Amino acid sequence: MFDYKHYVPILKWKSAELLALKNLRRRKDVTPLIQLLMPNNKKLNEIEDLDERLVQAINIFEKEIAEIGNKLLDIWGKNKLFIDCGLLLSTKLQIKTIDQLMAFVIPKKTIIIPVINLSASGDVKKKICEMSKKYNTGICIRIVCSDFLDMHKLTDDLEQFVFLHNLVYSEVDILIDIQDIFNNESKFFNYAELSQKIPKLLVWRTFIFSSGAFPMDLSKYKPGEDAFEPRLDWNSWEKLIKKGEMKRLPSFSDYTIQHPVYREFTKFLSPSVSIKYTLNNNWHILRGSKGKFEQYLAHANLLANSDEFFKRDYSFGDEYIAEKSEYLREYLDKIKKNKKAGGTGNATTWITASLNHHLECTADQIANLS
Fold first, then answer.
1. What is the 8-class DSSP label of residue 290?
2. 338-358: b or e for each residue (b if 16 or more CB lie within 10 Å)?
3. Which residues in 191-219 are b (16+ Cβ under 10 Å) and which e?
4. DSSP class of residue 5?
5. Taking the model in full, what pTM does it have?
6. Is 168 exposed, middle or buried (0-12, 13-18, 19+ CB in 10 A)?
7. Confidence check: pLDDT of 266 > 60
8. Which of 124, 228, 235, 331 pairs with 45 at a CA distance of 20 to 30 A?
9. For 308, which DSSP code?
């Protein structure tokens, strides 16, 4: 389907992430993996009983399943994408979602490739394989760190899975997902080496290696100061590719500017007014204080007037940053005249802008890899 010079960003089913993807300009070399999530909003968080909150979340999600396909079409058109239902909190809900979503493929001429973990229930595995064969999409097997504890078992599990469901190796994608490698480059290379022991490595349709290096939160950075965090996921993959010593080079996959471990059903927290800006080898983190939204404009102005800024027309996100930077003077003038001043943006719009820039930057780096 594609070789190592391809980008597979892992994104959550959240408005900011989906909008960032929708406004991505370089699409040819990108196949996103979207993880569907249980609903989590302020109303649900007001329900103290966890079981009741789960029931209500399932009810909300079931009503929205029919619209997921149309939303995907609006966001990504008829381009290929991976869909993972593994974070949905019941086998029944996963099967119902897969069933309805895959039925969307033929009439809308989309290419939705379902993702499955080896630890998934037998019913989910069966449904995904049935639907993938019915609609000729193939499937993606997501292999995680715990699967590597016993390489003999992993080999047997993969071979039995293919045999049991009558699959063809050349129609199956392999995604190695080691998640968090924050400050742990050795973890990346250890699992990269282990991945070369996957059976029939050269035969699978695609071979993807995913990790995430963005910190869980920004608490270690002081408000009012900007900092730089190494893009260890990208830097490690680039080293791997340039060495060229692997039997099969993997495509690059990351968790963008988000921490790879999803904390589901948590209470809403007020985020700091911060911008995460992706550079070639680092993230530039401009952290502010909670609730002081005017700091977004100050951050944008500082960034847009620095040598590291990628230019206004580089991406949708960069255009947003430039616009907010230019608005700073007008905003301060309104405040000075004691007038109502808005237009600073909020956590959602700034995640969209920062993430869109990250997607554009990473896709561009891969396409231009020497």
1. B
2. eeebeebbeeeebbbbbbbbb
3. bbebbeebeeeeebbbbbbbbbbbbeebe
4. S
5. 0.95
6. exposed
7. no
8. 124
9. T
* C-alpha to C-alpha distance for 363 and 236, rounded to whole angstroms: 16
Q: Where are the domains of the chain?
A: 7-264
R_g (Cα) of the chain, nearest Å: 21
Name beta bridge partners: 82: 33, 113
Q: Identity (one letter) of the amino acid at 322?
A: A
The CATH-assigned architecture of domain 7-264 is Alpha-Beta Barrel (3.20)
Amino acid residing at 27: R
List C-alpha distances in Å: 230 to 258, 270, 283, 284: 14, 25, 6, 9
CA dihedral 277, 37, 253, 249 (to 10 degrees): 180
CB atoms < 10 A from the CB of 101, how many? 21
pLDDT of residue 290: 77
pLDDT tens-place string over residues 321-345:
999 999 999 999 998 888 888 899 9
d(CA 257, CA 262): 13
Report the run of H or E that residue 142 belongs to, with start and end: strand 139-144
pLDDT digits (tens, 9 = 90+) for 91-136: 999 999 999 898 888 787 888 999 999 999 999 999 999 999 999 9
Alpha-carbon distances, residue 87 vs 33, 60, 75, 195 (angstroms):
13, 15, 21, 24
